[in-house]
Amino acid sequence: MNLLFLVEGGKTEPKVYKAWLKYLFPSLTFVVRPEDMTMNTCRIIAGDGYPNMVSKPKQYPGVSRLEACLIDIETFGNVNHFFICIDSEENSYIGVAEKVFP
């Protein structure tokens, strides 16, 4: 089982999700690079806030973090489950989902 998490925050969320996942799945190995995902591995990608996680970078050419995750999934074919974790804050789940996935 290989898991990929794209979390909204840049600092706190990656730490919290890693701690939760270690507790729930003690056999998971955490990796940084997509090519290192082999068996029972997990990658956590920091989105650095909304809308950064779904917007193309303004300071340099490239793709959004969401697009980069999708490219990695297609290129390496080693992700079994992909989770996109966003904060709804004062908005409803549907309202946030409509912004992220128009």
Q: What does this 3D model show about the protein?
A:
With 102 residues, the chain is α/β, with parallel strands linked by helices. The chain has one domain. 32% of the residues lie in helices and 18% in strands. The chain is built from 3 helices and 4 strands, in the order βαββαβα. A 4-stranded parallel sheet has the order 2-3-1-4, sandwiched between helices. The model has no long low-confidence stretch (mean pLDDT 89).
Comma- or semicolon-separated keywords:
single chain; 102 residues; alpha/beta; 4-stranded parallel sheet; 3 helices; 4 strands; 32% helix
The rounded Rg comes to: 14 Å
> How many strands in all?
4
**Reading side by side through the largest sheet, how are the strands ordered?**
2-3-1-4
Largest sheet: 4 strands, parallel
Shape annotation: globular
How many discrete structural domains? 1
Low-confidence stretches: none
Q: Kindly state the mean pLDDT as a whole number?
A: 89
Strand content: 15-25%
Please trace the helix and strand order, writing H or E for each element: EHEEHEH
In terms of structural class, how would the helical and strand content be classed? alpha/beta
Q: Helices and strands in order, then pairings?
A:
Blueprint: E1 3-7, H1 12-24, E2 29-30, E3 41-46, H2 65-76, E4 81-85, H3 93-100
Parallel strand pairs: 1-3, 1-4, 2-3
Short description:
With 102 residues, the chain is an alpha/beta fold. It has helices at 12-24, 65-76, 93-100; strands at 3-7, 29-30, 41-46, 81-85. The termini are far apart.
